[in-house]
Amino acid sequence: MNLPPGPSAPRLVQTWRHFFRVPSVYGDAWRRYGSPFTARMVGMDMVMLTEPEQLRALFNPQEHRLRRTRYQDIQGQALGPESLLMLDGARHAHHRRLLTGPFRPDRMQRYGGRTVEIVRRHAGQWPRGRWFSAYGPLEHMAMELILYAVFGLQDPAACAEARTLLDPVVGAPPLLLFSKALQVDLGHWSPWGRFLRNRERLNAWVDGLIAERRAQLEAGERHNDILSQLLEAEEPDGHAFSDLALRCELLTLLATGHETTAVSVTWALGWVLRHPSVHQRLRDELAACDTPEDINDLPYLDMVCKEVLRISPVLPIMGREVVEPFEIDGYTLQPGTQITALGWFIHRRPEVFPDPERFDPERFVDGARFDRFEYLPFGTGARACVGRAFGLYQMKVTLGTLLKEINPEPAPDEPWPALRWRNVVVLPKGGCQIRL
Ligand code: HEM
Questions:
Q1: Does the beta carbon of 378 sit less than 6 angstroms from any atom of ligand 1?
Q2: Residue 392 CA: which ligand 1 atom is closest?
Q3: Ligand 1 pocket, residue 264 CB under 6 Å
Q4: CA-CA-CA-CA dihedral for 273, 274, 280, 285, to nearest 10
């Protein structure tokens, strides 16, 4: 097959590097071969892209020769077959429209008060006088907020119970979810057996919430959460959403909507605390703010968050699979070929972002805008982020409220900005160590 050039290491080595090393591992190949280049792995070829014109073709919403990547099957095992991540074509487009509604920018106000309350409560309980990783506590906060948005849950004990159900399923080892050979149910003592039982428990919990809310709706009691809105939604053929589709989409929002925002705030905290002048300017800007809406509107905070999402994109790679021969730059890619947009390097093209390894919020001064194929922290096209407005809003209000409440110092010996994978996102290796 006629494929772009790429590293010549054995397939096993390239597979290991792709799955167990961080995306920056492709730096050498990118500099040597440019875009596109091919990583040859066991059982498949993966073509890597960083050029805007190539991305325009990859993310073209009318493109039917591509579909979601087969690696989304990993998430599908946890979230169910009707998850947005598993759908393609017309049903995908329809479910997307329904899920995007509650996250429109004009709906954000309903989440502001709750975000501030959660951040203050948690930050008030953080340890004093010793180092700890900020990621874990930030993830707890983000989980509470998404549970509120999706199910209207407010009681911290109910949220804690929800996370004990969700964690073992959504956080199951990707290898177990992907490899059919490991999926043998030998009861509770086998990894797959445990996963199946945990998934049953999680599904039963969500089904219980759906039944409860449906009964309330039928009794005329209306709620504002996303579950209540989806209960009234219809499939394209006019039938109501099935309970299976409902459950899969609710779980999809829980899974995609908390780790991403927690990681983005973790990166933001680490970058800001390592740049005292940025930290001070933010504190000055925040001093005059009283409400979450004030925080959300701050121009410098906006610049800082956008630069954080540039230099440390939470989802550093985005994949698609070829289903019909697909041309790119004179190469015809055959069905089964995986194509990956390397967001990590797209955000490091020096012609767009000079001195790209420097953290510099000034790049976004005066609402500077970049082409959507040059700067895409939330993806673009038919599978762009459903929760974009919510994610950015939550990132700003959480970071802003935290910096008003506490004045942490960053651990001088944490390797920064070293990366590690967690599911499909990358976070700082040490989780951003801080001390209050
Ligand atoms: C700062 C926070 C976030 C970042 C950086 C982020 C980033 C992304 C990116 C890059 C994609 C595109 C993946 C691709 O093209 O393959 C994506 C998709 C998605 N995001 Fe987000 N996201 C964030 C927050 C959220 C939130 C809060 C939610 C939900 C409440 C959410 C739900 C989704 C969903 C459902 C998809 C899949 C869309 C589809 O397949 O059609 N995200 N996100």
A1: yes
A2: 1
A3: yes
A4: -60
pLDDT tens-place string over residues 184-226: 989 889 999 999 999 999 999 999 999 999 999 999 998 889 9
pLDDT, one tens digit per residue, over 254-305 is 999 999 999 999 999 999 999 999 999 999 999 999 899 999 999 999 999 9
Q: Which residues contact 107 (CB under 8 A, 6 or more apart)?
A: 101, 389
Distance (angstroms) between ligand 1 centre and the Cα of 260 equals: 8
Spatial distance between the Cα atoms of 109 and 60, rounded to a whole number of angstroms: 32
Whose Cα sits closest to atom 20 in ligand 1?
385
Q: What's the CA gap between 436 and 374, in Å, rounded?
A: 37
Distances (CA, A) of 75 to 210, 211, 275, 388: 22, 25, 36, 20
In sequence order, the 6+-apart residues with CB closer than 8 A to the CB of 213 are 151, 223, 225, 227, 228, 231
pTM value surpassing 0.70 = yes
Q: What is the dihedral of CA 156, 159, 165, 169, to 10 degrees?
A: -130
CATH homologous superfamily for the domain 11-435: Cytochrome P450 (1.10.630.10)
